[in-house]
Amino acid sequence: ALILALLFHPSLNEYSPADISWTFALYLESVAIFPQIYLLSKKGGEIENSISNFVASQGISRIMTFIFWIFTFDELNSAEETQSLAIAPAHVGYCVFVAQIVQIILMADFLYHYIKSLNSGMPMSLPTFAV
């Protein structure tokens, strides 16, 4: 995530350390939920309400963030020359989209089971994932 942030980051305020830090956090956040989802899936069975609500709210937050970036996509791509250290400042928006999509995909199954449990009025449960 850090190498990706060093190579692909926007030049929002023309201060590279801040831009790289923000982009690193975004890229890291995209995969940081994976261990939680993996462990919940591996364990399977009923999930505590507090945990399922937390993970689902994170997923909904990612979907809302993705919608936000759809409308602000152009601001991330620098067409003009800036002092950015990025190797492809005109393609940063695509990297942000990919990071958001990766996180939504990682959470899609969990969100499906969460919504299913809400509709049924039953506690959330996940199928057991065998490795």
Can you walk me through this structure?
By secondary structure, the protein is mainly alpha-helical. Helix content is 68%, strand content 3%. The protein has six helices and two strands. Strands 1-2 form a two-stranded antiparallel ribbon. α2 packs parallel to α6 and α4 runs antiparallel to α6. The mean pLDDT is 79.
Low-confidence stretches: none
**What best-fitting shape do the alpha-carbon axes yield?**
elongated
Strand order of the largest sheet: 1-2
Number of helices: 6
Largest beta-sheet details: 2 strands, antiparallel
Helix content: 55-70%
Going by helix content, strand content and strand pairing, the class is mainly alpha
The helix/strand order is HHHEHHHE
Rg, Å, rounded: 18 Å
Mean pLDDT: 79
Q: Report strand %.
A: under 5%
Count all strands and give the number: 2
